[in-house]
Amino acid sequence: MSDWCAQLIENGGDGKESDESIATKNNIVYSRIVMTFLVGLLFFGPAANAWYSMIFKVLPSTSLISTLKKAILGQIFFGPTFTCVFFAAGMIQSGNFSLKAWLDKIRNDLPPVWLSGIGYWPIVDFISYKVVPMQWIPLFVNFASFVWTIYLSLISNKSKA
Description:
This protein is mainly alpha-helical. It is 76% helix and 0% strand. The protein contains five helices and no strands. α1 packs parallel to α5, α2 packs antiparallel against α3 (64-94) and α4 runs antiparallel to α5 (137-156).
C-alpha cells in the first residue's frame, strides 16, 4: 500500500500517462507495488524481527541512555542497510539494475535519505522503546514504516517518475 500511495503522490492526480505506466491501469505500476510487498515480506519483516529481538537482548533497559543507544544503532546499521536493499529492489523491478548504477544511487541518494531518517526514526524509536508496550512495538513500527516506505518509494523512483 505504501508504494501505491507514493505513486498517487507522484501522479499528482493529473491523469497523465508516463511511458512506464501506459500498460497500467490508472497510472499505477503494479510491478512496483509487488516489489515493495516482496521487500517487506522477504527482507524487512524478518530483518526487523531479528533486529528488535537482538537489540532488546543487547540493550534490555528502557532507560533514556539505552533508548538513545538503540536509536543510534538503528540509524547506523539497520536504516542504511534497508534503504540500500530497497534501492536495489526498485532498480531490479524497473530493469535498471547494475552494480555501478546501484552504487551511484547509494552515493547520491543514501546521504539525504539518511539525514531525513535522522529526523524521523529517532522519534519513532523513542516512542516505541519508551512508551509503546513491547508486544505492540512491531505494530507501531510497521505503521511508521508504512509512512517511511512512501518516502523511500518516492526517492527510489524519482529518476523514473
